[in-house]
Amino acid sequence: MSARDIILQRLRNRTGGDLVAPASDFSVLERPDWSTEERIERFEKIIESVHGEVHRCTRDNWIDHVAEVLSARKARNLLIPSQHQIGQDLRAHAERDDLPNLLIYDEPIESWQPALFNDVDAGITSTRGGIAETGSLILWPTADEPRLMSLVPPIHIAVLEASQIYTTLYEALDAQNWKAGMPTNALLISGPSKTADIEQTLAYGVHGPKELIVLIIE
Amino acid sequence: MSATTPHPHIDVKEFHPRAHEALHNPQIRQNFRKAMDGLMSKRKAAFEGWDLETLRELGANVRLRALANLPDLLEQLEQKLTENGIKVHWALDGDEACRIVRDICVAREAKSVIKGKSMVSEEMELNHFLEGEGIEALESDLGEYIVQLANETPSHIIMPAIHKNTGEISELMHEKTGTDLSHDVEYLTAAARQQLREKFMNADVGVSGVNFAVAETGTLCLVENEGNGRMTTTVPPCHIAVTGIEKVVPNLADVSALLALLTRSATGQHITTYFNMISSPRKADELDGPEEVHLVLVDNGRSVIYQDDELLDTLRCIRCGACMNHCPVYTRVGGHTYGTTYPGPIGKILMPHLIGLDEGRHLPSASSLCGACGEVCPVKIPIPDLLVRLRRESVDGDKLHPAKVRGHGAKRTPLEAAIWKFWSWMHSRPGIYRTGTRFASRFRKLQPARAGAWTDFRTAPKLAGKTLHQQLRERGK
Ligand code: SF4
What we know:
The complex is a heterodimer. Chain A is built from six helices and twelve strands. Chain A is α/β, with parallel strands linked by helices. In chain A, the strands form three sheets. Chain A has a six-stranded parallel beta sheet with strand order 1-12-7-4-2-3, with helices on both faces. The longest helix of chain A is centred in the N-terminal third of the chain and has 14 residues, at 36-49. In chain A, 46% of the residues are buried. By secondary structure, chain B is of the alpha/beta class. Chain B folds into two domains: 12-303, NagB/RpiA/CoA transferase-like (Rossmann fold, 3-Layer(aba) Sandwich), CATH 3.40.50; 414-474, no CATH class. Chain B is built from 22 helices and ten strands. In chain B, the strands form two sheets. Chain B has a six-stranded parallel beta sheet with strand order 1-10-7-4-2-3, with helices on both faces. In chain B, helix 2 (26-46) crosses helix 12 (252-267) and helix 3 (52-68) crosses helix 12. Chain B starts with 14 loop residues before the first helix and ends with a helix. At the A-B interface, helix 1, helix 5, helix 6, strand 9 and strand 10 of A face helix 2, helix 3, helix 4, helix 8 and helix 10 of B. Strand 9 (185-189) of chain A pairs antiparallel with strand 9 (274-278) of chain B. The complex binds iron/sulfur cluster. Chain A: This is Lactate utilization protein. Chain A: Residues 40-217 form the LUD domain. Chain A: InterPro entries: FTHF_cligase-like_sf (IPR024185), LUD_dom (IPR003741), NagB/RpiA_transferase-like (IPR037171).
């Protein structure tokens, strides 16, 4: 008999008999019904408490924030999506002096891995929403915005629509009907990469980005 | 069932000498005390504003519901994962799980493996095994990396290198990797980042653990702060996840409940930096991610624990480590003293199931039974009750509760057994009891001042001058 069959058989023929479990009441996860403004405030507060940065922008001025953030950090280049509106808008402003060189992730990683790991200063991605209660961004990487865009460069800029901030994960899962089909990789990102493994002292950017900058578009 | 082999350089049975050593090591005591105090207060703050009791109740019920349907859920998970393109393997014990990992590596001609944090792989002693097969296995979680450089095992399930302070880590990294001697944590972290980035790029296979496996969607969830888990599961061309069979939950909604409890209980964070959910290998149009994803489902004694209504509660554990952080014994002796993969309260109940009471006979008594572990456990595992049960079984149980755990009776000594036998004989005979107690209080001066190890740090209790019966009679009652 295979390991699989032995394990399943043992579990099915439990000597203790059938197990019954009490029903689960999820209402404790339903948090107060915050307004959009309350959600933004909570999101901002939590992200800042874990060393992230939040900029409240409009659809007209968010590129100014990108330029400001990156020139302050002397970033030489920025990895952008090629199809997504964010990428298109940035490319339309490619001539601006205060924007760094724009790069596109349009080849399989195998062909340019060392360049991504060593030469890219920042990446910008869209998000599928945010979670106010925990200060989390929801990302579903795609062919246009691959997984490593938000992980490898030292600075990650994420664009979040204010109208897509949910109160809790429980609410977001339901509202976006995740169970209907999950992508290859879904992510919650709630701050820059960090560790406290050396004597409980926080250090940022241990493997992923050292900085997380969220642009909330209102 | 084959038991987990004890770790090559730690003997589980040597609990007492190691505890003694740890208690006399001020550095160890200070490192743990400081860390645990911080973790306890952070946990408390993180639950502020929550109806914690109701949330724990939900966590316990979610886990119970998953366990009640375990075989069906495992089949559903396998089916969903397979539909999604993830290959599922089953292993009866740690050795079989190691062989499965090796075979995947061999098929890919893999020479190097990069690993995310995984307690099951510690249970399997995967690194040790792969090394023997000529495959390099490198830990990428900073704490695990440090512990591996030191050729040690983790001393905590969440913070593996918690027993070391900055100075010790600096010296270790200097010696093993050539970094400068420095107390600058940022510098040390940046150096490790550089060293590990090279490894991520060159590794043939990434191995990770799993925090929750969702049957409804065929999704593997990973909780982490560093991003090494994301690297491990994205950069190498092949990803192998390993998990105990108990980690499956029916729905995504269940995950939202457990995640809320897990991160707050573990480190006092509302959530960790990354929550990674993997449901398939790289698709045709995608530009990164592994070509192959495997899941190894490891039993290693779990299906045996599953047979018993009480022991089963152990399988609810979500590995948050809160019971360790709050345990007065763990805080004083540290994780290595236990000599087991899982230390602290959860280790004291889980390990005797896995390795038997003959190996782990000291574990259930390494507790003050203060009850803190049971009180903080986010999924309400009655750890103190299980400790009492295992203590009973370690001396072979009683008529009402016949022993079941392997190796029961290992702690039974003829002298102790005889004393208790005499005790119960005397207590069921009023005449003899009266004479006995009167006799004992009359000659109380002869009572020895010491009672073995028990009086090393305590004063021995003294018999009263008069028995209770005498005192009551004198008061005319
Ligand atoms: S037994 Fe409870 S407190 Fe201890 S690690 Fe498991 S879930 Fe956490």
